[in-house]
């Protein structure tokens, strides 16, 4: 579920980098980091996809379009925005202001996200875990699963469930066509006592 991102060589997912990345101020450093993380293939895909928009949007200041690249989620901006903003396709998000439209563009889940370590740790404080509530939000708990085992077909085929069910009714009841007794003499005679 990578939504078309080039992540074959990425060492691990979710990709978490150390906090000194938040202090990067130069694009040169950001490019070097992406190349070390093997995420530059995704940026090359963005460069290759830059093209002119089809249709009337060209006249409405929306001439150029391109694919989406990785989303970088940080905790504190110590220059990270200036380092990454000139690389095409990259979106920068603060962990306390996550936007579902940026995390799942077009309603499709699976955007390639690069997290800083402090941002990844802050998720538990923001949203809590299934064991404890969120500390930065008031009265917020993560939604719990209704089913412990979601393999519904295996549950329905299990012998315990099959024993409790009645046998399937195989007999076919075909509807008999109702004939008009005023037009059909045989049916009229059957009706008459």
Automatic annotation (TrEMBL):
Family membership: Belongs to the universal ribosomal protein uL4 family.
Record keyword Transcription regulation present: no
GO molecular-function term, one example from the UniProt record: structural constituent of ribosome
Superkingdom of the source species: Eukaryota
Protein name in the entry: Ribosomal protein L4
Keyword Chaperone belongs to the record: no
Large ribosomal subunit protein uL4 C-terminal domain ranges (all copies): 138-193
Gene Ontology terms: cellular component: ribonucleoprotein complex; ribosome
Organism: Ovis aries
Keywords, sorted A to Z: Ribonucleoprotein, Ribosomal protein
Family matches, as SUPFAM superfamilies: Ribosomal protein L4
GO biological-process terms attached to the record: translation
Pfam family, one: Ribos_L4_asso_C
């Amino acid at each position: 579920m990578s939504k078309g991102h080039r992540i074959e060589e990425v060492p691990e997912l979710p990709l978490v980098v150390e906090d000194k990345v938040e202090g990067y101020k130069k694009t040169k450093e950001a490019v070097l980091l992406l190349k070390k993380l093997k995420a530059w293939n995704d940026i090359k895909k963005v460069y290759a996809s830059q093209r002119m928009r089809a249709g009337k949007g060209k006249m409405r200041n929306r001439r150029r379009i391109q694919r989406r690249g990785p989303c970088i989620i940080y905790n504190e901006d110590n220059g990270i925005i200036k380092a990454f903003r000139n690389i095409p396709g990259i979106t920068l998000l603060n962990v306390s202001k996550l936007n579902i439209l940026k995390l799942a563009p077009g309603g499709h889940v699976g955007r390639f996200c690069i997290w800083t370590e402090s941002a990844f740790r802050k998720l538990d404080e923001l949203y809590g875990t299934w064991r404890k509530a969120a500390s930065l939000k008031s009265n917020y708990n993560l939604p719990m699963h209704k089913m412990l085992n979601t393999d519904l077909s295996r549950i329905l085929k299990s012998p315990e469930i099959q024993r409790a069910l009645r046998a399937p009714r195989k007999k076919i009841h075909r509807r008999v066509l109702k004939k008009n007794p005023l037009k059909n003499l045989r049916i009229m005679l059957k009706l008459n006592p």
